[in-house]
Amino acid sequence: MHNPEHEILQGNNETxxxxxxxLDIIETTRYALEMLNYNVLTAxxxxxxxxxxxxxxxIDLFLLDVMMPIMGGVEFAEWVLxxxxxxxxxxxxxxxLSNELDAFIxxxxxxxxxxxxxxxxxxxxxxxxxxx
Length: 132
What we know:
The protein is 42% helix and 17% strand. By secondary structure, it is α/β, with parallel strands linked by helices. The chain has a single domain (10-131), classed as Rossmann fold (3-Layer(aba) Sandwich), CATH 3.40.50. Strands 2-1-3-4-5 form a five-stranded parallel β-sheet, sandwiched between helices. Strand 3, helix 3 (73-81) and strand 4 form a beta-alpha-beta unit. Helix 2 packs parallel to helix 3. The radius of gyration is 14 Å and the shape is globular. The chain starts with 14 loop residues before the first strand and ends with a helix. 28% of the residues are buried.
């Protein structure tokens, strides 16, 4: 029996900016996303991500850690939205949600994935967010 819920969904060459301060997470998630047919840009905090955004510009999805040094994911997401109002985000967090993140989710309806996340869940969440 064919069940699409159990299939890993491929990307269509979209560009994802992956922002996380954990190098192991960056490497493993980048590898997974590239196997799913995404172009992946990386940054280790929100300030680095601003630099990437300003040089690249055409980013389809932001996959953000919440707690990072210098600038966290929520602060970076708010910065992006002030410049690109229809930007799409997924927060990829290892901890319980913060009040700051709760408020952002309530306002923008952003998705959250707890890391480490299985590739199946990651692939479905990305396709769902990019399709809306």
